[in-house]
Amino acid sequence: MAIEVRIPTILRSYTGGEKAVQGGGETIAELFGDLDARYPGIKDRLVDGEELRRFVNVYLNDEDVRFLEGIATKLADGDSVTILPAVAGGAG
């Protein structure tokens, strides 16, 4: 099963600078495990135990996985996963 994963700039040091990588798995959790096997350390930046880290947003085909089944969200061949760090700030 091939899943395209779009990597944010802040995590590209784990993927050798690649903007997008291929991964596999039946769920988001398995996908992150697959990515961590090839890009050690990336999973720890995305999840804390069995939950997404607070300031990490993950989208499956443009749907926020927090509104689906979180990291237990099922994947299908050809899906696209986008990882985005949350951005905060504003005028002072």
SSE diagram, text form:
Elements: E1 3-6, E2 20-23, H1 28-38, H2 42-46, E3 47-48, E4 51-52, E5 56-60, E6 63-64, E7 80-85
Parallel strand pairs: 1-7
Antiparallel strand pairs: 1-2, 3-4, 5-6, 5-7
Walk across the major sheet and give the strand order. Answer: 2-1-7-5-6
| Radius of gyration of CA atoms, rounded to a whole number | 13 Å
Low-confidence stretches: none
Main sheet overview: 5 strands, mixed
What is the count of helical runs? 2
Distance between the ends = 47 Å
For this entry, what is the oligomeric state of its chains? single chain
Which strand-content bin applies to the residues? 25-35%
Overall pLDDT? 94
CATH class: Alpha Beta
Percent helix range: 10-25%
Note the overall shape. Answer: globular
> Given the helix and strand composition, which structural class is it?
alpha+beta
Q: What pattern of helices and strands is seen along the backbone?
A: EEHHEEEEE
Count of domains? 1
Q: Report the count of strand segments.
A: 7
> If classified by CATH, what would the architecture be?
Roll
CATH superfamily: Beta-grasp domain
InterPro entries: Beta-grasp_dom_sf, MoaD_arc-typ, Mopterin_synth/thiamin_S_b, Sulfur_Carrier/Prot_Modifier, ThiS/MoaD-like
Protein name: MoaD/ThiS family protein
Pfam family, one: ThiS
